[in-house]
Amino acid sequence: MGKLEKEGLIRGWGMCNDNAHGLTACHYISKALGFNPPVALQNDYSLLNRRVEEHGMSEAMSSIHCNTGFMAYNILAGGSLTGKYSTDIGNSGRDIMKYRGRFDEGGWGRTLYRYRSINALKATERYEKLAKEFGLSITDLALRFPRDREAVTTSLVGHTNMKQLEQSLKAFRAEPLSEDIRWRIDREHMMERNPIWNSERV
Fold first, then answer.
1. Over the stretch 82-106, which tens digit does the pLDDT of each residue have?
2. Radius of gyration (C-alpha) of the chain in whole angstroms
3. N or C: where does the chain have the smaller number of CB atoms within 10 Å of the terminal CB?
4. pLDDT tens-digit profile of 180-201?
């Protein structure tokens, strides 16, 4: 990557799905080789997945350390945080969901199981109730949350139609979330810090 940059073929380069150790090691190795370190890192980040904050990534990416931009992807948790895959969780703790769309597909679709574990579904329901309490849709809350986080440089959002694009643009142009709702989001997070990596059904 360093050679490509020196040849003027790229302006910068980045990494994906790495951790604090990988980022800092790559940063120092690049410096030792006389090349520029990565300028961006993209990782999964949403209301349901805040591991970037939990595992030292925010500190590693900060301007006083590696000074690396953070691109949050899957901020809608594979569509789970849009209400598209709404579910009912019965008394038995089993989820009742008619899978459709990307959840039904092989390949990348199979990696989305993490968003439909019992814990993830329960967390999604709690965030949906919280959003309604503040007069927001779950999608609006999910889009605005990463935008207001200090560690996030930009959010990567996919759209399949103009209505979805317009909804994202409206959310990104809206006022920052209030301190009250941000505190409530953090309280929900502390009750289930890693819902997509926990499951009652293994």
1. 877 665 554 444 444 555 556 556 6
2. 18
3. C
4. 999 999 999 998 888 888 777 6
- The C-alpha torsion from 53 through 108 and 129 to 196, rounded to 10°, is -50
Q: How many degrees, rounded to 5, is the angle at CA 20 between CA 179 and CA 16?
A: 90
Q: Quick one: which H or E segment has residue 126?
A: helix 118-133
Sign of CA dihedral 141, 142, 144, 148: positive
Query: Which of 15, 40, 54 lies closest to 196, judged by CA?
Result: 54
CB-CB contact of 161 with 114 (8 Å): no
Residue 68 in contact with residue 37, Cβ under 8 Å?
Answer: yes
11 Cβ contact partners less than 8 Å away, ≥ 6 residues apart: 5
pLDDT at 108: 61
Q: Which amino acid is at 112?
A: L
